[in-house]
Specification:
11-stranded mixed sheet, alpha/beta, about 250 residues, Rossmann fold
């Protein structure tokens, strides 16, 4: 489930996608698009939205894979005849366009700046492979991993879900070896505790709009915290055991 586009670079930055670059999860956008196209009923669509919302509100968020799998099961249970591959590709295209018009300013500009400075950009997401691939390409990433894919038979998606079943840190470790990357000066940006393992592998971790669970871990480790609200971006850096608030986009 790994695709690459360009040459190796020594320094790297790894980004989560859902809630870190894209303001809305790719699966959530996919569900909304299927409902708007009449491919999925409003009831199942609402059930999945509630499920994903409930996950985001959890203090202990280490079971993202379980929530994602259950949400996709509900999705395909409501699509007993499956989904045509062409329809799925059209939905993915629409989701990417929506995501690109609704990204967080801080993370998108950070990715652009890092790319201009020769960083190798990596996206590791719990979302579906083709959606992650399409968005990562548009954002100019060099490598990406989607941890979930949907099995296809002939011209239809069957509803069977394939999953890597690996934590992000293990995935990143394999990428570092594959591309001969150096962790010196490296960065990681994420928003939940599923990113903690990755944070511990880099020099510059950034907890971006963290939920309560990640904020607690970030505070314990003295990691930088960045919060974006409306058109304002605030960074919190640990100084003498206390977070100091500063405006980033002044």
């Amino acid at each position: 489930m790994l695709y690459t586009l360009s040459i190796m670079k020594k320094q790297f930055a790894v980004f989560d996608i859902d809630g870190t670059i894209a303001r809305t999860s790719l699966l959530q956008l996919m569900v909304r698009e299927l409902v708007s196209r009449g491919k999925l009923g409003a009831g199942p669509g609402r059930d999945i939205e509630v499920m994903l919302h409930d996950y985001r509100q959890r203090i202990d968020d280490d079971d993202f894979g379980g929530y994602m799998k259950k949400a996709v099961e509900v999705l395909f249970e409501a699509l007993p005849d499956g989904l045509r591959a062409d329809d799925f590709n059209e939905v993915i295209s629409a989701v990417v366009n929506t995501s690109l018009s609704n990204t967080y300013v801080y993370t998108r500009e950070l990715a652009q700046t890092l790319r201009q400075n020769g960083f190798f950009l990596i996206a590791i997401s719990g979302s579906e492979l083709h959606a992650v691939e399409a968005l990562a390409k548009k954002l100019g990433f060099d490598a990406w991993v989607g941890q979930v894919s949907y099995e296809q038979k002939d011209d239809r998606l069957t509803g069977k879900i394939n999953s890597l079943g690996k934590p992000k840190a293990e995935i990143l470790e394999s990428l570092i070896k594959k591309f001969d990357l150096n962790t010196k000066g490296s960065m990681a940006i994420g928003d939940t505790t599923s990113d903690v393992g990755v944070f511990k592998m880099v020099d510059n971790p950034i907890a971006f709009n963290p939920n309560q669970a990640l904020f607690k871990v970030a505070r314990e480790n003295g990691w930088m915290v960045v919060v974006e609200r409306k058109d304002m971006v605030y960074g919190m850096e640990m100084v003498d055991g206390q977070y100091v608030l500063k405006q980033v986009n002044a």
